[in-house]
Amino acid sequence: MKMKTLLSLIAAGMVLVPSVASAGDVPVNCRTEQTGLVNIYEGWASCSAITSEGWTTISRWVPASPSPTVILSEYVNGAWAQCSANVPFLTQQPLYQEVCDYTPSAYLTIDNYSAGEVYVAARGADRDGTFTVQLYVDGVLQSGTSTVLDVFTGGYTIGQRVRVESVVTDNDGYTTRKSGWAVLEDTGEISPFPL
Fold first, then answer.
1. Strand pairing partners for 133?
2. Is this model's pTM higher than 0.85 or not?
3. What are the boundaries of each domain within the chain?
4. Does the chain have fewer CB atoms within 10 Å around its N or its C terminus?
5. Pair 189, 114: CB distance under 8 Å
6. What is the assigned CATH class of domain 17-27+103-183?
7. How far apart are CA 43 and CA 26, in angstroms?
8. Order of all β-strands in the sheet with 27-51
């Protein structure tokens, strides 16, 4: 289809864009855990810097920090001299962070792509594990994650509203549901009905 024709159909409202809705991806079971160790450096640090009169040594006490190096500077004979110094290792401290599980995401696509037919698809995602996806049509579990509801072979009628639901369960046992209504219409991108 040429772009100009497609834009004309969109402007006339004759191209239906699929509806995609989502739910989930919510943090749950948040807790503080030790996720590692961080090195701490503290003590006297010194280094040599070049000045207009030769080399000079700069020394400073460096308070505790996770940085192993520091830039030291000193005003010497009317000019600033600076150099990079290593800070002595002091200890290791535990590093704590908030860690959360996440509920899976459930996606539901409802697409009236053809008059008298509605394409329905369930998808899922999980940022912290694996997941399974199920599609329900009017409360009945489908054998796959997508289906076409139609007036021609499916026993549906024009104007009928059908409840559809995407159910996603992750490996942590969390379940997310996203539901909606598929409405069988007599219009669509492909219409076998006379106008």
1. 168
2. no
3. 17-27+103-183, 33-98
4. C
5. yes
6. mainly beta
7. 45
8. 54-65, 27-51, 89-102
